[in-house]
Amino acid sequence: MKKYVLFDHDGVLVDTELWYFKAGERALAEIGVALDQERYLRDMSQGLGAWAQARAAGVDEPVIDRQREVRDAYYQEYLRTEAIQIDGVVDALAELSQYVRMAIVTTAKRADFDLIHQGRQITGFMDFVLVREDYDRPKPHPEPYLAGLTRFGASRDETLVVEDSSRGLASAVAAGIDCAVVRNGFTATQDLSGATHRIDTLAELASIRARVKHGDVRFEGVVDQAGCYRRGVPAIPRRPARVRTCVAQSCSIRSPACPMSPTWNASAGATAPRSLR
Fold first, then answer.
1. Residue of 63, 59, 37 whose CA lies nearest to 185
2. 221 exposure class (CB count in 10 Å sphere: 0-12, 13-18, 19+)
3. Residue 197, phi then psi, degrees to nearest 5
4. Measuring CA to CA, which residue among 161, 121, 135, 115 is closest to residue 23?
5. What are phi and psi of 93, to 5 degrees?
6. How far apart are CA 274 and CA 262, in angstroms?
7. Residues of the chain with pLDDT under 70
8. How far apart are alpha carbons 104 and 131 in whole angstroms?
9. Percent of the chain with pLDDT over 70
């Protein structure tokens, strides 16, 4: 059963990936280097940044160091002025917080992270946050997510990573942790085939284990894309009104496959005893 969720940050909880690229693009343009987005995404998957293209163009390190500071200033400008909220994130975190403990593991710098979360609710759902300054080797190295496991005192099997990029996915895979990749248009062309789950929004998280108790009978399920609990094939809908102990919420479904439904029957595929009705 999944008890812990380690979230990536940029592109998962806030829509900042494009603006980080734009800031680098703007800083490199000032020294005559055109930042190619396709190559940037390839380099990003290996843990490299915009400066790989600058070095390939013959830009020396002192200039790169100067333009990195310029990039950082542009990025913070975008963070202050552009819309970076992802709709539904706060609601999804509020729902998940009822069943799992959560944290953020990000390559974002502390200064940028703190700026992003001025006046936002996201960090209120988290047990802790690990930013770039909190570990030595960034993603795709497994260290960031291994540090998250250690901080929680969690095992790999009871933990889920949520990512949006091949770099973060590689970090989770190297750490031996299941990873759900959420759709992000900016990173959509990257190879994400190693993900355990592919989802469109956080509300669809399909591998958060949920334990439902009714009387002395227990069964386990996962949250599916329709927002229902599943145990194998049969659907276990969300909180029938007559069952107050269900961990899900506001269900109006009455499926014969659900052992909580008044129409439950064994032929529909559910395996819980009829007394659970």
1. 37
2. buried
3. -140, 150
4. 115
5. -65, -40
6. 10
7. 206-277
8. 8
9. 74
Measure the CA–CA gap between 132 and 250, rounded to whole angstroms.
Answer: 40
**Mind listing the pLDDT tens digit for each residue in 102-117?**
999 999 999 999 999 9
CA dist 98 and 205 (Å) reads: 14
Per-residue confidence (pLDDT) for residue 261, from 0 to 100 = 41
Q: How far apart are CA 164 and CA 18, in angstroms?
A: 13
**What is the DSSP track for 179-208?**
EEEEP-GGGTTS--TT-SEEESSGGG----
Cβ atoms of 261 and 254 closer than 8 Å: yes
Contact 114/165 with Cβ under 8 angstroms?
A: no
Count of all residues that appear for the chain in the document: 277
Query: How does 97-117 read in b/e, with b if 16+ C-beta sit within 10 Å?
Result: eebbbbbbbbbbeeebbeebb
Task: Read off the tokens for 245.
Answer: 């102990």
Which of these, 246, 150, 245, 86, lies nearest to 236 by C-alpha position? 246
Contact 220, 209 (CB under 8 A): yes
User: What pTM does this model have?
Assistant: 0.73
Q: What is the largest CA-CA distance in the chain?
A: 74
